[in-house]
Amino acid sequence: MPIKTWPAGPDALTTSLRLIHLSDPHLTSISRSAWRMMCNKRASGYWAWRRKRRRLHRPEVLQALVDDIHTQSYDHIALTGDLTQVGLPMECQQALGWLETFAPPDRVSVVPGNHDAYAHASWQQTIGLWQAYMSDDSGQAADDAFPFVRYRGRVALIGVSTALPTPWPFATGTLGDEQLARLEACLRDTAAKSYFRVVMIHHPPVAGTIGWRKRLTDTAALAGVIRRAGVELILHGHAHRELEARLPTPTGQAVVLGVPSASMTPATGRDHAGYSIIDITRGTAQDQGSDWSAKVTRRMLNPYRDEWRFASHVIDLRFTTANTKGPVAMRCDETP
C-alpha cells in the first residue's frame, strides 16, 4: 500500500497552540418533507429525534457555548463529529452553513460521527460537503482519505473517521485495517519530525468507556497502533460526557479526553453542554527530548445561574516524548 507523506506547514517553528475541543452539537433540524428519504434506519432516528432528542439538544444552548468560545482567544478548533441528527443531505448542508458562520476552514478541523453517516448516502451530498474542514495541508480530502493531517506550529492534528452506516439499533464505529495502517504510518512520520500529535476521533478509543452497542469495534487494533507508534493526546466525543483515560505508548501513556455534547440542555440530569480549551506548549529541554505541557480547561455550562454561564476546572499535564516516561498528570484543581 502506498504511504503518503505529510509536509510540515509554514508555521512549523511555533511552539505553542491553544486548541478548542467540542463535539456532538447535533445542530440540525429535520422537516417533515424529508420522510421520502427515510425508508431505512433514518426512520427510527427521526422518531427518536421528534420524541426526545430535539428536547435534549437545544440550539440556544449551542449558541451560548459558541458565544463563550468566541470570548476566548484560540488558534484552532477541533470538532469531533455528530453535527447532524440522521445525516440527511439537507442536514449536512445546514451543518455546512453553521460551520461557515462558526469559523473559517483553516481554523476548524472536523471529523464525522456516526449520526453523520446514519445510512448509506452520497459522500459528495453529505459529509463531503465539509471537505474544506477535513482536508489535510496538501488539500486532499475524500471519504477514503482519512487520516488527514494539519500542522499548526509544532502540533500535528490528525483526523480519523469511525463513521460508517450501521443497522438499527447499533451506533458502533470502525476504523478498518487500511485506515489503521495509514494512521500508524502517519504517527511514525510525525514523531520522526518531533511533532506533538493530537488524534481527533469520534468514538471513544478506550474499551469499556461506552456501551457495547455504541462502541468502537476495533479498539484493540487501535490500541496496538498507539502502543507501537505512540501519540500524545486523543480527543473524542460520542459519549456525551466528560471522560479522561490513558492508553500505553512506547514512552509512557497517551491522554484520552472526551467532552460532553455541545448542545445538551441542563435539564437532562446528564453532563450538560461543555467544551475544552487545551493550551499545548513545548518546553526548552531540547537536549533531553521534546518536553511538552498541556493545560486543559474544561468549560461546563452552569445550570445554577439565572442565565447560562460557563464555569471552569483545570487539568495540568506534562508530556515527555523521548526515551522517558510520559505523559504524567501533574495536578487537577478547581477554579471558579
Report the mean per-residue pLDDT as an integer. 85
In one word, what is the shape?
globular
Order of helices and strands: EHHEHEEEHEHEEEEEEE
Overall number of structural domains: 1
Outline the low-pLDDT stretches: 328-336
Strand order of the largest sheet: 3-2-1-10-11-12-13
- Helix coverage percent of residues? 10-25%
CATH architecture: 4-Layer Sandwich
Task: Using the coordinates above, name the CATH class.
Answer: Alpha Beta
CATH-derived topology = Purple Acid Phosphatase, chain A, domain 2
CATH superfamily, please? Answer: Metallo-dependent phosphatases
How far apart the termini lie comes to 52 Å
Key structural traits:
Purple Acid Phosphatase, chain A, domain 2; six-stranded mixed β-sheet; single chain; 336 residues; alpha/beta; 26% strand; disordered C terminus; 20% helix; seven-stranded mixed β-sheet
Task: Write a brief caption for the model.
With 336 residues, the protein is of the alpha/beta class.
Description:
This protein is of the alpha/beta class and 336 residues long. It has a single domain, classed as Metallo-dependent phosphatases (Purple Acid Phosphatase, chain A, domain 2, 4-Layer Sandwich), CATH 3.60.21.10. It has five helices and 13 strands. The strands form two sheets. The protein has a seven-stranded mixed β-sheet. The chain is globular. The termini are far apart.
